[in-house]
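ok posting inputs for the magnesium ion job
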Amino acid sequence: MSFLSDISFRRAVALFVLTIALLAAGTWTIVRTTTDYLINEYVQNIAHHWAQLVAENVNDLGQIAAGEQPSSASLMFFRATRKSNTVFRYIIFNRYGYSQLTVEPDKIAPVELSEFSAEAARAIAQGKAVVDIKRGARSGLPERYAEAYVPAVVNGKAVAVVGAYVNQAQAAQVIVNVSWASAIALCLLTGLAFAVPAVAWYLRTREKQQADRRIRFLAHHDVLTGLANRAQLIERLQNAVAVLPSTGTMIAVHFIDLDHFKQVNDTHGHDAGDFLLTTIGQRLKAMSRLEDTVARIGGDEFVVVQTAVVEQSQAENFARRIVEVVSPPTYFKEQEILPRMSVGIALAPKDGLTPERLLKSADLALYNAKVTGRGAIRFFSPEMDDALQARIRLERIIRHAIANDGFTLHYQPVFEMNGKKLIGFEALARLSGPDGEDIPPATFIPMAEEMRVIDKVGQWVLNEACRTAKSWPTHLTVAVNLSPAQFESGRIEEIVAGALGLSGLEPHRLELEITESLLLRNSEATLAALQRMKDTGVSIVMDDFGTGYSSLSYLWKFPFDKIKIDRSFMESFERSGHDVETVVKTIIALGRQMNMRVTVEGVETAEQVDFLYDAEADQVQGFFFGRPVSATEVNANLLKDFVANLPAEAEGKANRAKTALG
Ligand code: C2E
Ligand code: MG
Ligand code: MG
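and the output
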């Protein structure tokens, strides 16, 4: 930058000096010509003046020119005038050009040997003054003087020539001084007149250049980090892709996204966020080669383009190094910030040949890395594209359902084994796509969690389930599933209380089903919230029991009202037979010991029912007893007949089992 401004500065100075030099040369020439002219004029004037003075005051000029002695009056005149500074000598010539009388400061005398002067003769012949400028020192003469020959006219007739030797030195000096002083003043004024706009022009040009450079820089760089921006990235990617066929190598596009960057901004402030981004930018730059491109293309999104990749493993190693180099903690105002990131990689030419396609592929890979677990590194694969399209579609369906009451609830009956009594229903959310296809909750619930709209969905489910249950006979309960994400906003208690308040449902008729994954996250606060809800009379149920890693440990950390044995146990019942029976029996016994009722989910066959009678399960739920159905169906058909219409097969087997047990 300064190099460029140096060049234009030097140019401006050179131009200025040249102008001043031209100005000086011009002025010098003008001054010389003018001073010479002025001096000549001056000399002629003086000489005329003298000639006139002599002609007027020396009456016997004609006689003197003819060789006679001057009269005493003339001598007095000569004496009075010989001391003049300006005319240091004058000679009176006759009309033929021969000298007759010399008047000098120290002598007034007729010439001894008359000399001919061509100039004097010419002055007579031409009838006008002849001036001859003399330069250069000669003994006894001034440095610069002029000889002026002026015809003296008496009664209209030239009678003599007065040759006046005019000392120019003083006058010339004055003229020269004045001329030079004016010239210098003129020069300065002109210079000033030139310099002021020139300086203004220079300053403006420099400002403009700086602004231009800034604009050019901003057009290609990210302001915060100074890294390349999207525009430059695309340009460089384009160039890198263009040379691929000739090199036979690959390009790896590493798309990096910081995990939980929002949290850094929220907890440490935006300055800390900016600091983190700058630090990461520096770290990425430091680890990359000059020919690689490091860009920041969005809030917390960076891209590194690795060129000259020969094998995929090189790209993988590079990505690992990115994670390694960027991950060490950084400190902002003594607060530790841990940068965490995910990396998606696309390879050219395999995953795309245009910058846009490559970035999209890398972004898809990044997205996948984030979904499958943050902090991961993923290469792009074509399935990711299809998966993304499906996700985008699902997101749209969910948003539409939230905005237009698009969710529905189905209710699956839960029976008490003992006495074959219907005790309530589990509310299960349902969602249909635009083509009428059913989207399973196992698909849309996690998606709603990710989209951070699960609170809205969950609130609707709670309100709807409580409202519906309120219309049922009062001994029937309703179970609602809660997702762990619903505890994150801290509003779950308020939402549950709201649903109960709105519907008027008694709290003891509501069961909240949670899974172990909820307790894995923030167990202290969550357990406290669960306890407070339990204190209001709501039942807390451990759902899908037996599928987690540490299910048992939670049983003594929270006094669940009920545990529901996951349906996977019943699924493997036929296959693993005896082992499953043992485990299920043990869990039932454990529940009994801990004062928790035990529901077995996913009961599908009569054999399972037989076994569960045998194992003394408290409650059962499954297709064998009833599939999830709509609220209308619940109301219209099932409620009144549930007890009477228990499947005949189940009833028969159950009775047989009971009889056998004695
Ligand atoms: P879940 O809470 O364990 O619900 C029971 C699931 O087992 C239901 O699946 C039900 O249809 C299915 N099921 C019941 N009996 C049988 C059977 O005999 N055989 C088989 N194979 N399956 C049976 P669904 O409705 O697909 O729900 C799946 C999961 O989605 C639920 O598991 C629950 O965790 C979640 N879910 C459903 N609705 C909601 C909701 O409103 N909120 C939240 N957070 N999760 C929900
Ligand atoms: Mg459930
Ligand atoms: Mg379950």
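notes: The chain has three domains: 23-172, 230-380, 401-661. Residues 23-172 form a domain with the Beta-Lactamase fold (CATH 3.30.450.20).
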